[in-house]
Amino acid sequence: MTLPLSFPPVAECVPRPEDAAADRQALDALREQVLQANLALPRHGLVLFTWGNVSGVDRARGWMAIKPSGVAYERLQREDIVVLALADGARVAGTLKPSSDTATHLHLYRQWPGIGGIVHTHSTHATAWAQAGLPIPALGTTHADYFHGEVPCSRPLRPDEIARDYEGATGEVIVETLAGRDPAACPGVLVSEHAPFAWGRDAAQAVHHAAVLEEVARLALYTRQLDADRRPIGTALLDKHYLRKHGPGATYGQQPPAART
Ligand SMILES: O=C(CO)[C@@H](O)[C@@H](O)COP(=O)(O)O
């Protein structure tokens, strides 16, 4: 039998020690990023008990790291973070059971190559809007500084979807709900009868967006309590606030150099 000309020489198939060390470093860095993002959830008051999870990705290596299921935040360690292959969910590192929402996270990363972190919480006010099946209207500039329009609420999942692949279908319904919108301009969603999901360029930014989503949900609830007929702000104000921070040429969030001499 003749081997194909492109068949690599055996030496090229053997992993080099420096590659293994770089992989180990990348794995530790990803797990640390995801650990710190998870620990930020209780600090921001976004979770009670273990009702939430954060994931992050290393797209170059095709990895997703996520909180293990049901582990208390105060006990969570870097080595507990489970790392899976983005392509097929195969385990890369970690021995614990990954979050029950893993299939939702995987689906969103596969559909939206621009995101690098995802958060799911049951934060009180955002969850109240989700349970009511209502989108959060853009009632003021706090909202418009992050969301270029309402925070949409998905349709409820159908019984057949819940029976077939509940978490995968949750990811599908989120993508369906965002259809026609740029996920970067709408960094969160409410899943009807469930709770919010938020995302960002990395796990830390996804947590920031989850906290903003909870705050705009709280503000919108109070606003509508004070004035049940309050309408969303107009396009001029919405565009002004969103685009000056996130539009073409915007440098919002750029930090000054760490050390100035
Ligand atoms: O949505 C829910 C429960 O309604 C879950 O996200 C929440 O309990 C967290 O589950 P995990 O501990 O991540 O498996």
Description:
- The protein has 261 residues and is α+β, with helices and mostly antiparallel strands.
- It has one domain: L-fuculose-1-phosphate Aldolase (3-Layer(aba) Sandwich), CATH 3.40.225.10.
- The protein contains eight helices and seven strands.
- The protein has a seven-stranded antiparallel sheet with strand order 4-3-2-1-5-7-6, with helices on both faces.
- It is globular, with a radius of gyration of 21 Å.
- 35% of the residues are buried.
- Mean pLDDT is 94; it is low at 1-5.
- Bound molecules: 5-O-phosphono-L-ribulose.
- The site of 5-O-phosphono-L-ribulose (HMS) has 10 residues, from loops.
Strand order of the largest sheet: 4-3-2-1-5-7-6
The chain-level structural class is alpha+beta
Number of helices: 8
Order of helices and strands: HHEEEEHEHHHEEHH
Strand content: 5-15%
Care to count the β-strands? 7
Largest sheet: 7 strands, antiparallel
The fold-level CATH name is: L-fuculose-1-phosphate Aldolase
Number of structural domains: 1
Gap between N and C termini: 67 Å
Residue ranges: pLDDT <50 for 5 or more in a row? 1-5
Residues in helix, %: 40-55%
User: What CATH architecture would you give?
Assistant: 3-Layer(aba) Sandwich
Q: What is the top-level CATH class?
A: Alpha Beta
User: Which kinds of small molecule does this entry bind, naming each only once?
Assistant: 5-O-phosphono-L-ribulose
Q: Please tell me what the overall shape is.
A: globular
Rg over CA atoms:
21 Å
Organism: Sphaerotilus sulfidivorans
EC number: 5.1.3.4
Cofactor: Zn(2+)
Protein name: L-ribulose-5-phosphate 4-epimerase
